[in-house]
């Protein structure tokens, strides 16, 4: 099995939306309202527009397994203003829309994507990788803890359903375990992960 990480291109938007739909259906079957419209998640059309903007800005990456899109992550310096303070945002990169195809669960693709977020943070001289997670999804919280993140707090002022704020220091990752890609997306460049 060959795994590579590459920058996303606008042609990947369909695959990214497929991953989102797959994961939303799986979460719903497990009794979670995460990413569902009923749970106040973004409708797929709004999600697609947001990810499309991130792809165009060079902030989204794809991990492939044997040439097939198996996961995605968006890493940038933006967040909803009611979640993190300006000082917290200034010292961090933010993870958004990390999704791994269920067929590849257990292959640590999510950990590899998060490691790439740490590489982006290093390139930008940021001390933290931060993210917001669905507040009610304690299984997801456990996943991030196993990935080395700590719960900073639950944002009581969160307007949406993702108010569990997690963070991990950039220097806590093993530098030899970080994929090396350009800081901003270049779809012609891929690296083994």
From TrEMBL:
SUPFAM superfamilies, per the entry: Acyl-CoA N-acyltransferases (Nat) (SSF55729)
InterPro entries membership: Acyl_CoA_acyltransferase (IPR016181), GNAT_dom (IPR000182)
Domain N-acetyltransferase: 3-172
Disordered: region residues: 169-193
Residue ranges, compositional bias (Basic and acidic residues): 169-180
Protein name: GNAT family N-acetyltransferase
Coiled coil (UniProt feature): none
Organism: Nocardia bovistercoris
Domain of life, source organism: Bacteria
């Amino acid at each position: 099995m060959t795994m590579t990480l590459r920058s996303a291109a606008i042609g990947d938007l369909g695959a990214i939306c497929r991953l989102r739909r797959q994961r939303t259906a799986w979460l719903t079957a497990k009794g979670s309202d995460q990413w569902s419209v009923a749970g106040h998640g973004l409708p797929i059309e709004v999600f697609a527009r947001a990810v499309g903007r991130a792809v165009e800005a060079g902030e989204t990456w794809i991990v492939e397994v044997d040439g097939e899109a198996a996961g995605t992550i968006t890493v940038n310096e933006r967040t909803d203003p009611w979640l993190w303070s300006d000082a917290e945002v200034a010292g961090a990169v933010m993870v958004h829309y990390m999704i791994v195809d269920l067929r590849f669960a257990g292959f640590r693709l999510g950990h590899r994507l998060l490691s790439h977020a740490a590489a982006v943070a290093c390139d930008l001289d940021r001390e933290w990788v931060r993210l917001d997670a669905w507040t009610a999804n304690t299984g997801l919280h456990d996943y991030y803890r196993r990935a080395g993140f700590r719960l900073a707090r639950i944002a009581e002022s969160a307007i949406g359903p993702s108010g569990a704020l997690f963070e991990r220091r950039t220097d806590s990752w093993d530098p030899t375990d970080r994929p090396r890609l350009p800081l901003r997306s270049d779809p012609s460049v891929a690296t083994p992960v």
